[in-house]
Design brief:
About 70% of the residues lie in helices and about 5% in strands. It is mainly α. The chain has a two-stranded antiparallel ribbon. It is globular, with a radius of gyration of 14 Å.
Length: about 90
């Protein structure tokens, strides 16, 4: 049952990232994969310091979803700026 919760949290992170990409991609701001990496790092840190696995795995799941939703920008190490104009899709990784 817990695995389904973490899969759902990963999808929620992915959905937040995709909606942010579609509606906020024209703003000059940090790319959202950075927020995903920060959340994953925070989850690992919480696990190592407080040994709290529920919160840490939840943060890691949401962060992973955010990072995957902006995988192309993460692979190109785009940190700050506007997304290139083009067709925006929810079910895609760009």
């Amino acid at each position: 049952m817990q695995v389904l919760v973490y899969i759902l949290l990963t999808f929620i992170g992915f959905a937040i990232g995709r909606v942010g990409h579609i509606y906020g991609g024209q703003m000059k701001s940090p790319h959202h994969w950075i927020y995903g990496v920060i959340l994953m790092f925070a989850g690992i840190l919480i696990f190592l310091v407080f040994f709290e696995s529920k919160w840490s795995l939840g943060l890691i799941s949401v962060g992973f979803g955010l990072a995957v939703s902006d995988l192309e920008d993460m692979a190109d190490f785009k940190v700050y700026g506007v997304d290139l104009p083009g067709k925006k899709r929810f079910w895609g990784v760009d």
